[in-house]
Request: fold
Amino acid sequence: MRLAITNHEEREDVMMWVSDLYKDVYGFRPRCYNFDAFSNAELSDFVNDLIEDREREAQIESEAVEKAIADVMSLGADKETALRWLDQADAFFMYGDDTFYEDSIEKYGWVASQFE
Reply:
């Protein structure tokens, strides 16, 4: 479903979240765009492109997560163990030997939300 901006109210609604969407896709807020100069059609196309990019990135990430789980399970672990190991690896990769953060990842990470 493509977004179509047809009036000022819809445009104002889009302008409330377009910066967040851009940041989701590119990791930083949009710079050097004069959104006021965009026509409604141009802004609709811009936002629809961002939505497609975000959906494509989400699909790639989902496939990478499934592959990582399958790779760990190929070592003989069940799914729950594979997920726990992946969370532990993320915690170490992100925070090194800071045990406070490692504990937080294990308590509140993806595994905890799936198997409580």
In short: The mean pLDDT is 84.
